[in-house]
Design brief:
Mean pLDDT: 81
Shape: flat
Oligomer: single chain
Radius of gyration: 28 Å
Helix content: 40-55%
Low-confidence stretches: 217-222, 386-393, 395-404
Structural class: mainly alpha
Number of strands: 3
Length: 411
């Protein structure tokens, strides 16, 4: 593999020197699989050679290579030799060597402070005892951390001293700074935390019951949606003569025709596509999997992207980054960005610009075409039918039929 980038035997000999020499070929192959350009791959391999020689000079074995020693190497390598992506290259190398079992796994950083131990125990409770998702834990943790930090500061954490006024003061300070939805999430996080403390005997008071209800009326607004012509313009804005255009067109069709959530598009794998039956499996909320029909135009768009634009790579994800390293999107934010770019190309500027805009647009269009709320609930895969009720507010014809004449009003 190495001769593909360095045909000179003397250069190859230099690359194979030092403790990292036996792994240069495999690392080079991985870089090629991930889609890095030849010039970029050569720069990364040269850096690995410098690291290998550095280990050799310091009489260090591969078995003790870790993040700390990589940082020492980069510091000694020094400007002007250090490039912007060097730290990332070294991280990639460590990941590769760890997969091979040649270097030890990273040392887990444990917060052994009193506050850190409490937060760790609470995280374990949420996951192991309540079965909540990692996303929920991530949403709850900042509120709990901020509450404990504000209450105890750098002093001793005496959980038994917590009181209802502590909770009220915290919420009165924090709630006005955030949206109603975020304030409600903060209250929910604290209720869960105080339930955990009481269950484990750290507090005796019912602090969860002391948290006031957060006003966040359901169905107070209209669902924001694009009209059919605007959705069509959004799709037409994708240049299907380019790789990114083919990929984004397929993504937008999945959002617009099937109402998929951004996270569901991210999680879609090649194994989820059943071309024989014309269906796909969607990995939805709560680890639910559901099989949906694959409309002909959506299937054609996905197939065109897979055959014409998706780079060869190891990941089974359907939609991947087109720039190296070729891998699946790390979060649903990438799908939101696809929608935002399409909105910019078409000159549309709705209040909300993420992937959910197309899900709302689909539901609104179906309702206007005569679909029932029950049918929309099934298509959008809402667990609770009440979630779909907001779309009743856009059925203006039905609402006019229910409207009563204003007393004393004119004709």
């Amino acid at each position: 593999m190495i001769e593909r980038f360095f045909p000179d035997p003397l250069a190859q000999q230099h690359l194979y020197g030092g403790p990292l020499g036996p792994y240069v070929d495999g690392f080079a192959e991985q870089l090629a699989i991930q889609g890095y350009a030849e010039a970029t791959t050569k720069e990364k391999l040269r850096l690995i050679t410098h690291l290998s020689r550095w280990l050799q000079r310091h009489d260090l074995t591969l078995a003790i290579l870790d993040e700390e020693r990589v940082q020492r190497f980069l510091a000694e390598h020094g400007s002007p030799h250090v490039r912007r992506g060097d730290a990332r290259t070294c991280r990639m190398l460590l990941d590769y060597l760890r997969e091979l079992g040649r270097v030890p796994p990273p040392t887990e950083v444990v917060d052994d402070t009193p506050l850190g131990r409490i937060e760790s125990d609470f995280t374990h409770y949420l996951v192991a005892e309540r079965g909540l998702s990692a996303a929920t834990v991530i949403n709850y943790s900042p509120t709990v951390h901020r509450f404990l930090e504000e209450r105890f500061g750098a002093g001793e954490v005496e959980l038994g001293e917590l009181s209802a006024p502590d909770v009220h003061r915290f919420l009165l300070r924090q709630a006005p700074r955030v949206s109603r939805g975020r304030a409600k999430l903060m209250a929910t996080a604290l209720r869960s935390f105080f339930g955990f403390l009481r269950q484990h005997g750290d507090v005796t008071r019912d602090l969860a019951g002391a948290i006031p209800a957060t006003t966040n009326w359901r169905l107070t607004g209209l669902p924001l949606a694009l009209g059919p012509e605007q959705v069509a313009a959004l799709l037409d804005s994708c240049d299907q003569e380019t790789a990114i255009g083919q990929r984004d067109y397929a993504i937008l069709l999945l959002l617009a025709r099937l109402g998929l959530r951004a996270g569901e598009v991210v999680a879609l794998t090649l194994d989820d596509l059943d071309w024989d039956s014309g269906t796909l499996i969607v990995h939805g909320k709560g680890q639910r999997q559901e099989r949906l029909p694959l409309p002909e135009d959506v299937g054609e768009a996905v197939a065109n992207y897979l055959h014409g634009s998706r780079p060869r790579c190891a990941t089974r994800r359907v939609f991947i980054r087109l720039q190296a390293p070729h891998r699946g999107f790390s979060s649903s934010a990438a799908i939101d960005d696809v929608v935002r770019r399409a909105l910019e190309r078409t000159g549309l500027n709705p209040e909300h610009k993420g992937a959910h805009l197309l899900r709302h647009s689909l539901a609104t269009r179906l309702l206007n075409n005569g679909a029932s709320l029950e049918q929309i609930t099934q298509l959008l895969r809402h667990v609770h039918p009440q979630t779909t009720e907001i779309y009743a507010k856009v059925d203006l014809q039905a609402l006019r039929a229910l409207a009563q004449p204003w007393p004393g009003g004119g004709e």
